[in-house]
Amino acid sequence: YSKSKNIFGWFLFALKSMFSGKSNFFEALKIRYFGPIKGNDVLVLVKTLEDLKKIKGPRILHIITKKGKGLKEAEDNPVTYHAPGIFNPETGERKTSDSVEGSPIKFQDVFGETLVELAKINSKIVGVTPAMLSGCSMNCLIKEFPDRTFDVGIAEQHALTFSAGMAAKGYIPFCNVYSSFMQRAYDQVIHDIALQKLPVIMCLDRAGLVGEDGATHHGVFDLSFMRLIPNLTIFAPLNEIELRNIMFTAQKGIDFPLVIRYPRGKGYIVDWKQEFQSIEIGKGEKIREGKDIAILSLGAIGNNAIKAAQELEKEGVEVAIYNMRFLKPLDGSILEEVLNKYNNIITIEDG
Q1: 110 contacts: CB under 8 Å, gap ≥ 6
Q2: Contacts of 90 by beta carbon, 8 Å cutoff, 6+ apart
Q3: Active-site choice (38, 184, 266, 286)
Q4: Is residue 314 classed as helix, strand or coil in its secondary structure?
Q5: Spatial distance between the Cα atoms of 112 and 273, rounded to a whole number of angstroms
Q6: What is the dotted CATH code of the domain comprising 107-261?
Q7: Which fold has domain 285-348?
């Protein structure tokens, strides 16, 4: 009976293909196609999936859903409610601390606002991102310069190659990709940017652990997989001011590809919008004196090192802190000083 039923099913499948006015890519490959069905109807979805389990071979189920279904605020504002955090399920009101007066803003907003500042004084600057306009705050740029902002959709590979082409033509592309998603464009970074020595500015948002964004978004691998690529320079700012200054330095003109990695969420400085200063490529800085222990920190996690050093000072332990800034190239003068002066050395990074 089951065999006859299966043969009858394939017969109907053949008739459907024969008399259908539309061609179906999957049916042309002899893959069973079902749908579209309403994906927000849980009962229909469960029943359909149970039926499909009984069919052998590859099959495609086409499901149509409405983002935020059931909550009007989410249906009307799907981008805002893509990652809303805590919100009232009855009213849709989001609970956020972003608007607390007198607190630092997010690194993402520092990036977005700084990019607009720089774009106003440098007409060669363009912004590129693969469907992360809101998340990385490049929406600030598209409001001011829509013709110089390119959202290429969920296509990290294209974003990097597109940026390489822009750089080859003399533009200054700031390509913003979440650290975790840069893994998808690894080949393009190597072949289209690094080996060509094109001055693409790759901004890796959400570097390090990202909390409620979840495990798939943790940016804990980029330090390792980017460091081994030739011709790259890799910078991790200690705070918002350093993020601004490295962006300023990069747009002045570089002849190498640059990676800037910074974390998700709030910064550390309320008064971050200060006058731009250039950063010397490959040079770190000593930000705290101490004779007992030396900490070499890379990136915003250095702020944790500062707090730890302050606590240890209460116990009579003097800790020196070096803000390395650059993972590549490393500051050889700092390494030489630390190795000659200290027996106890700690390195701290968030990757």
Answers
A1: 240, 243, 244, 267, 272
A2: none
A3: 184
A4: coil
A5: 12
A6: 3.40.50.970
A7: Rossmann fold (3.40.50)
d(CA 185, CA 224): 15
Whether 349 is catalytic is no
107-261 and 285-348 share one fold: yes
Tell me how far apart the alpha carbons of residues 149 and 128 are, in angstroms, rounded to a whole number. Answer: 6
Query: ω before 36 within 30° of 0 (cis)?
Result: yes
User: For the chain, which residues make up each domain, given as ranges?
Assistant: 2-64, 107-261, 285-348
Given a contact cutoff of 8 angstroms between Cβ atoms, the answer to whether 76 and 52 are in contact is: no
Is the pLDDT at 270 greater than 80, yes or no?
yes
Distance between start and end Cα atoms, the chain: 58
Mean predicted confidence (pLDDT) in 23-29: 81
81 has a pLDDT exceeding 70: yes
Catalytic residue among 156, 206, 288, 325: 156
At 178, which amino acid appears? Y
Question: Which is the catalytic residue, given 5, 67, 197, 252?
Answer: 67
Phi, psi of 76 (to 5 degrees): -80, -25
The pLDDT mean for the chain works out to: 91
Q: Residue 159 — very low, low, confident or very high, per pLDDT cuts 50/70/90?
A: very high
| Distance of alpha carbon 234 from alpha carbon 324, whole angstroms | 11
Active site residue 227: no
pLDDT tens, 173-223?
999 999 999 999 999 999 999 999 999 999 999 999 998 788 999 999 999
- What's the predicted TM-score (pTM) here? 0.84
DSSP string, 232-300: -EEE--SSHHHHHHHHHHHHT--SS-EEEE--SSB-S-SS---------TT--EEEE--SSEEEEE-ST
Indicate if 156 belongs to the active site.
yes
